[in-house]
Amino acid sequence: MNILDELKWRGAINQETDHEGLTDLVNKQSAGIYVGIDPTGDSMHIGHLIPFMILKR
């Protein structure tokens, strides 16, 4: 099970345009993503930690 399958199983992925392409990308190389928060900002809270915990996997 790759990370995409696990996130889908957990309900974290609602929709995707190219599952095969994303699977190939994840299996072949590392990929950059945008999380949407500023880790140096003063308005971070514990809920912002979840995407980073998922990314660590």
From TrEMBL:
**Could you give a single Gene Ontology term from the biological process aspect?**
tRNA aminoacylation for protein translation
The entry lists its GO molecular-function terms as: ATP binding; tyrosine-tRNA ligase activity
Gene Ontology, cellular component aspect: cytosol
Is Aminoacyl-tRNA synthetase tagged as a keyword? Answer: yes
**UniProt-listed InterPro entries:** aa-tRNA-synth_I_CS, aa-tRNA-synth_Ic, Rossmann-like_a/b/a_fold, Tyr-tRNA-ligase_bac-type
Recorded catalytic activity of this chain's protein: tRNA(Tyr) + L-tyrosine + ATP = L-tyrosyl-tRNA(Tyr) + AMP + diphosphate + H(+)
The protein's name is Tyrosine--tRNA ligase
